[in-house]
Amino acid sequence: MSTRAAEFHANQWQGVFYLTGGGISLLAELLETPGASQSVLDAQVPYAIGALTDLLGQEPEQACSSTTARQLAMAAYERAQALGNRELFGLGCTASLATGRIKKGQHRAHWAVQTASDTFTFSATYDSDRSGEEYALSNHIWQSLQQYMGNHPDQKVDPGVTQMHASATPSLQKLLNPEPFSHCFGHPVCNLLFPGSFNPIHEGHKEMLRVAQALTGLEGAFELAIKNADKPSLDYLTLKERQADLHGASLWLTNTPTFDGKAQLFPGATFIVGVDTLERIGQLRFYQNNADQFDRALACFEQQDTLFLVFGRQQDSKFKTLEDLQLPHTLRQRCTGVPQDKYQNNISSTQIRQQQRRQNRSSDH
Fold first, then answer.
1. Cα dist from 43 to 28, 32, 36, 287, whole Å
2. How far apart are CA 363 and CA 334, in angstroms?
3. Residues 254-276: pLDDT tens digits?
4. Residue 326, C-beta contacts closer than 8 angstroms, at least 6 positions apart
5. Which of 32, 34, 31, 33 is nearest to 44 (CA)?
6. Within a 10 A sphere around the Cβ of 127, how many other Cβ atoms?
7. Model pLDDT, residue 103
8. What global pTM score does this model have?
9. Using CB atoms within 10 A of its CB, is residue 154 exposed (0-12), middle (13-18) or buried (19+)?
10. What is the DSSP annotation of 164-225?
């Protein structure tokens, strides 16, 4: 019987574990020690990329990364919310350790712990055989749990492990609850809002906001929804990073991923959207082909006096604008297109992330 596992089972925490590529011996130690049902609510080992995709709602851009570990931890935490009734946590780990085949780059692991109030992330590199690296990783994760969630707050994580941490105020913690909620950093203007994921924020986003302010005469703010219907919520470290990238611009954080939900949080608002986003808002298939849900969303825009300022976008060889869309009449009359001569910027966050990944892979080799 493991003493450290027995101690962990006896504390106030209940959690879910999602681990891939490493850390499995920690899970075995927890489950082999009596009392596991007191602290382990669920555990999964999504080795196949399809299994990992199912957990995250989309295929990760990089399977072994700090970002993926955070997403796994948040997915685990949200699963714990549905299953537990004490202090809850989610632990996610993704690792690329020694195997029978030669691997490119360093052997490494990333793991994260998500609670209602905190996000912790850890990263380490290894240089041993499979059993040695698995043993070291398992011990490192144990050190993390004992320091932040166990009965040994004086326990130090190995100095070779890189750590990051972000905590949330009680107000921010409400974003992880199911009830609609918003929180503003900066000037709380809400008549002109630019929703997006801003991963990362780029000059095109900033130019869109400047053009929208000039066209409407309104002061604008960015809006970032931490929840997504199909993917884990954004963790507190990610929120902190996205806010920092905005360099002091006003930012609303919400937990409403749909536009009818945003409309109810911000009555009378004008939303800045790209033509591709508006196309999704106006198509039945993006409401699970549920006609009632679609009709309720359109009715909500009317009830809340919601407007849309629509920016064109280059798609293949054509610059697509509002005039190219077929929309329900009730939605179309709430939209104003931005003239092409006012804005034509083809910067893409996806392209920026792809370039960053190529640079990271080059630096690893």
1. 10, 13, 11, 31
2. 48
3. 999 999 999 999 999 999 999 99
4. 282
5. 31
6. 10
7. 57
8. 0.89
9. exposed
10. EEEE--HHHHGGGSSS--EEEESS---SEEEE---TT--HHHHHHHHHHHHHH---EEEEEE
Q: CA Rg, the chain, in Å? A: 23
Packing angle between helix 49-56 and helix 66-83, nearest 10 degrees? 60
* DSSP at 18: E
Q: How far is CA 50 from CA 54, 55, 110, 112, in A?
A: 6, 9, 20, 21
Residue where the block lists tokens 């130019």 = 207
Note the pLDDT of residue 363: 47
Q: Whole-angstrom Cα distance, residue 139 to residue 216?
A: 57
Question: For residue 55, which phi and psi values (nearest 5 degrees)?
Answer: -70, -40
Give the pLDDT confidence score for residue 364 in this predicted structure.
Answer: 45
Q: Which amino acid is at 212?
A: A
Question: CA-CA distance, 348 to 150, in Å (whole number)?
Answer: 43
Q: What tokens appear for 295 in the block?
A: 């009709």
Hey, what are 220's tokens?
Answer: 């604008």
Query: Strand, helix or coil at 272?
Result: strand
- pLDDT for res 194: 97
Token look-up 């064109």 returns 312
Can you name the residues that pair with 310 across neighbouring β-strands? 273, 337
Could you give the residue ranges of the DSSP H alpha helices within 33-115?
36-39, 49-56, 66-83
Across 147-277, the runs of DSSP E, i.e. the strands, are 162-167, 182-185, 192-195, 220-225, 251-254, 270-274
SS3 336: strand
pLDDT > 90 fraction of the chain, expressed in percent and rounded: 73
| Positions of the chain with pLDDT under 70 | 100-105, 151-153, 345-365
Helix (H, G, I), strand (E, B) or coil at 298: helix
The token pair at 14 is 């209940």
Backbone angles phi, psi at 126, to 5 degrees: -135, 155
- Give me the chain's average pLDDT, please: 90
- 23 is written with which tokens? 């850390």
Six-digit token string for 155: 């326990």
Residue 348 pLDDT: 58
H or E, element range at 244 = helix 236-245
